[in-house]
């Protein structure tokens, strides 16, 4: 092939072989399209929705900005979505940033000083902010004021800067890492719970309608049962099952199609993925059920220690497959049963560490 024959597009001057690096991916666009736009459309978290609805309606009735809101819970449960809903319900713009992005007090001062009156500032992973920025946030939340330090050493001067009233929505997956002075300045705090299978089925049916995907009740139930109680995972699995149904079948998702598709993507009937099973298999086959240290277990599965601890372990513990003990990680009898293995004599479950 003669590459010289491939001329740039006459209208845009761009080479047709080049892909725009700034283009949004399909998954990003789909995620945005699937987000509920108001509290009535938001599925699950009934108590949080009821309480938040009262807070927002009262603020609108007073003509004031809403109190600062702290949302805690595991990833994928809807904290970012709720922050956008808060902004929509208050008819206010929203500014989105994250704790790791704010490493200096000056970073936070620049954001706060550019806020409009009534604007919602969503601060994801708020527990990962630097300490100087955290201390500046105390005054900003309480008095809507920050002190900007100009100069260094003995000649440094603090210049007070008044801020317009705004609403801070903080999100965290580890609420225990927030210092009490910061936590106490939120007017409303909520903990996001994992979803029940029936709630996830409603999420999947709603997403299927938006994606124009045909799915029956049994197919939705099959996906919901493997979604770890998390809407984000449910939506991701739905999109992968949709791909399988379009390529391998007629596009209609049934329980058989869902089961076959999730088998291809290595998600088993309890929602365990490749990493989860690798951790369990190493614990059972290499270390006879434990106890074993986290670092040793991480090396055995070829993953970073943080990946095993923060991605795989919480779900395995919640499902009763793994326990953390002072001596290390230990497999439960349920883990042996799930992988179809017989525990050796003297394994932790047989020794009476766990009830039968």
UniProtKB/TrEMBL annotation:
CDD domains: AAA. DNA binds at residues 305, 324, 329. Pfam families: AAA_lid_4, RuvB_N, WHD_RuvB. It is found in: Cytoplasm. ATP binds at residues 34-35, 76, 79-81, 142-144, 185, 195, 232. Residues 1-23 are annotated as: Disordered. Residues 65-196 form the AAA+ ATPase domain. Has 3 domains, the large (RuvB-L) and small ATPase (RuvB-S) domains and the C-terminal head (RuvB-H) domain. The head domain binds DNA, while the ATPase domains jointly bind ATP, ADP or are empty depending on the state of the subunit in the translocation cycle. During a single DNA translocation step the structure of each domain remains the same, but their relative positions change. Belongs to the RuvB family. The RuvA-RuvB-RuvC complex processes Holliday junction (HJ) DNA during genetic recombination and DNA repair, while the RuvA-RuvB complex plays an important role in the rescue of blocked DNA replication forks via replication fork reversal (RFR). RuvA specifically binds to HJ cruciform DNA, conferring on it an open structure. The RuvB hexamer acts as an ATP-dependent pump, pulling dsDNA into and through the RuvAB complex. RuvB forms 2 homohexamers on either side of HJ DNA bound by 1 or 2 RuvA tetramers; 4 subunits per hexamer contact DNA at a time. Homohexamer. Forms an RuvA(8)-RuvB(12)-Holliday junction (HJ) complex. HJ DNA is sandwiched between 2 RuvA tetramers; dsDNA enters through RuvA and exits via RuvB. An RuvB hexamer assembles on each DNA strand where it exits the tetramer. Each RuvB hexamer is contacted by two RuvA subunits (via domain III) on 2 adjacent RuvB subunits; this complex drives branch migration. In the full resolvosome a probable DNA-RuvA(4)-RuvB(12)-RuvC(2) complex forms which resolves the HJ. This is Holliday junction branch migration complex subunit RuvB.
